[in-house]
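Quick entry between incubations.
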Amino acid sequence: MKNSRLILLFSTLFIVSSLLSACAGGAGVATSWPGLTVDPSQKVAYLADAQYVYAVDLTTGAEKWRFPTKGDPKVTYYAPPSLTSDGQLIAGDYNKVLHSLDPLTGVETAGKQWPFTQGTDRYIGSSLVTDQTIYAPNENNYLYALDHSGNLLWPFETQAALWAPPVTDGKYLYLAAMDHNVYKLEAASGKQVWSSEDVGGAMVGTPALSSDGVLYVGTFNSELVALNSQNGKVLWKAPAAGWVWASPLLLGDTLYFGDLNGTMHALGLDGKVKWSVQPDSATSHRAIVDKALVVNDTLYFSSETGTLFALDITNGNTRWSKPIGGKLYTGPAAAKDLILVAPMGLSTDKGNTLLVALDSSGNQKWTFVPAK
Amino acid sequence: MWDTLIINPMVNTLLWIYSILGNFGIAIIIFTILIRLLTYPLTVQQMKGTQKMQEFQKSKEWEELQKKYKGDKQKLQQEQMALYKEMGINPLGSCLPTLIQFPIIIGLYQAIIRALAVTPIQTLDLYGHIYPFINAAKLIPINNIFLWMNLSQPERFYIFGIGIPVLAIVVVVTTFMQSKLMTPPAQPGEQGAQMAQAMNLYMPLLMGYLALTFASGLSLYFVASNVVTIVQYAAMGKVEWSNLLPGNLLPRNLFPARKQSAIVQSKPATKPASTSISKTSTKPAPRPTQKRKTPVKKAKTTTKKGDA
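Done. Structure below.
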């Protein structure tokens, strides 16, 4: 009797601790969605997901390599990898390390100053890469500028986490931070030129920069904000139906962006609505998280519902929609005649499908399911 | 359903408190106190139910019934239920309030985790839980820093480069204190005494492990919850302060079954194993041994003597 009670007690403690562990998110629980980068010239897609960075052959969908060869559950990769002009693939992990890999083999660059370990928190956003410099945003509030050998050139501190890389006009960087401010920095020195007023909410997307010097950035205040890049003054704010997570796509005289309420907006550069659509109104979990893609006159975007939408860019009418499955948080990417999407949580008999390639009509060409 | 009834109200209350105070650590403490105050009637009900049940188990009527229907379990159960009714006892009176509180406590825990939202997935999830009247845009990102702690990370206090898990230690100490203070003096013959002793020892260790591993925001919740519980029980006069005396701190007999067997073999039931008994104990040592060795009837007698 007493033994059975003790067994019951310890079983209860075990179950409670397991429940609490599950709530807190232990190892093996996804903390973000796959990061996707495409190199059409090499016909390779690079995908960062959980314990690995994969290189996938765009012709066949076959795995070319993975880094590391043996994954560690404590080290995960979600930031989209970035390619440098001198043949490096920069991949930040959730264990505070920025890696330089050989894009052809996946072997980590030896020597020089790589890997970069001075960041004290996770790399959630990708790095901005220029001919001379790598700009890596870290969750510890810092933007790190490195040369291509991994030497730290300068750090720049904001007041909150950085989840997105800056945009550059060559001379200056424009950095949107979660502290509600946009910063203009000298690209060479990291010296702050201006800091904007509080734009009303956190920003986790890279601003779009127009040729006439206007910055456009989405905020958690459910707005798209336009700022003068010369002085950081807010020019206008356009309301959205939910938090704007993704970077806006600037194409000609139109801005395209989605929000977490599942609405895709097309705005003129004066902030006036051209059209807006909410194609997934049947469910409340329909967030549009990542940037849209335009190929020819079709606008593609991913939805949390697991559907890829193709809209007519001129009026927002749905041309076709393709249920992929899982959740589509990662935005679509173009690779010549292919549209790539990276679902999250799409399990099949063979394993988790990490990448799906479609043609421009939505027909599936191949899927990538990594070997276990 | 779970989210709508439990999680969403809690997440939004927590964020609302944070919006007023501007400090997430204090918001967690206030929020914990608030929830414990709201569930205070349940705690009182549970306490009364437990007390009544303890009185029932010590009652002469129940002992007589046990003797009378020793060989007929079904009849004993029927008579037990009748006696419950007669004495005005609800058999579920002590555990039902606990069962109702359990989802609230789990919800509280989940609400803190969700409101902290430090990863993209958690932040996206949080978006779906926030009520329109909460100005989330102003609040996010949550300022996770409280004293020396990052509430979204496991806590360590660094002295000369050595990380000391101060909060985990406080969690262990307060959980241990709470367990000890709320445990009534053990009756040697009581069925639950052994379990209570094991609970008093292992629960603080388990909570300490969780505090060591998980975000310190949760550890802060554990500490606040323990302290509030102690205060609540103290207000009801149900705290056994004597359990904190040095002689009563550690279980007298961690593995009674094994030790007692050994005692039985070497010293058959005549001389108390006095070295294993604390100085403040009022109970004679050999009784557990006697109870285990002797048949049920004798065990009952032992219990009765102990009570007398």
